[in-house]
Amino acid sequence: MNNTTRSILLAGVGGQGIIRASDILSLVMIEAGYDVKKSEVHGMAQRGGCVTSHVRYGKKVYSPMAKKGDVDILVSFEKLETLRYLDYLKPEGKIIINDEEIYPPSVNLGEVEYPDNINELIASHFSNPKVIRASEMALKAGNHKTSNSAILGALSLYLDIQTNFWESVLRNAFSEKILEANLRAFNFGRNA
């Protein structure tokens, strides 16, 4: 294990399971032997506001938040949130975009239009952003609330963490009633 601290920023909208996903991600990193620090912001989350969580891991991590330009992987649970947090990403950073649109109040009120070319705009500035359809994967898995597990599955491909750590943490994170759907969603995300 080298001394490099890596940073992952999860961003989305309240109700998408971002905090739960960052908790699972942090536990996976701990299981894999890393020091982990996590920070979250969920101010108006219950009203559809922005939610972010920084997860930083390495041999020794001193700060829970990455500064702008220092994030290795941006995981966007909602397309517009990708644009909001691009300035945190390193030039060579990776992006995972959940191809879901949740309109903010300004769009719902007709004050502004939701941009229709977000994925193309990002692809023109960053190499190989990965766009997934986590909601479709969740429905296919049998529970529409498992989108965050599908997104974690896609993220797992960018991390050098053995699959058994993911499965162990997922098995402890969910009740028996929803465990199998979350495991299926995670695997759909891994195979996206």
Characterise this structure.
The structure is a single chain. The chain has 192 residues and is of the alpha/beta class. It has a single domain (6-190), classed as Pyruvate-ferredoxin Oxidoreductase, domain 3 (3-Layer(aba) Sandwich). 40% of the residues lie in helices and 22% in strands. It has a six-stranded mixed sheet with strand order 2-3-1-4-5-6, sandwiched between helices. Helix 5 packs across helix 6 (147-156) and helix 6 packs across helix 8 (176-190).
β-strand number = 6
Major β-sheet profile:
6 strands, mixed
Q: Are there runs of 5+ residues with pLDDT below 50, and where?
A: none
Q: What average pLDDT do the residues reach?
A: 93
What structural class should be given to the helix and strand makeup? alpha/beta
Tally of individual domains: 1
Rg, Å, rounded:
16 Å
Q: What's the CATH topology label? A: Pyruvate-ferredoxin Oxidoreductase, domain 3
User: What is the CATH superfamily classification?
Assistant: Pyruvate-ferredoxin oxidoreductase, PFOR, domain III
CATH architectural type: 3-Layer(aba) Sandwich
Give the neighbour order of strands across the main sheet: 2-3-1-4-5-6
The percent of residues in helical segments reads: 40-55%
* Helix-strand pattern: EHEEEHEHHEHHHH
CATH C-level? Alpha Beta
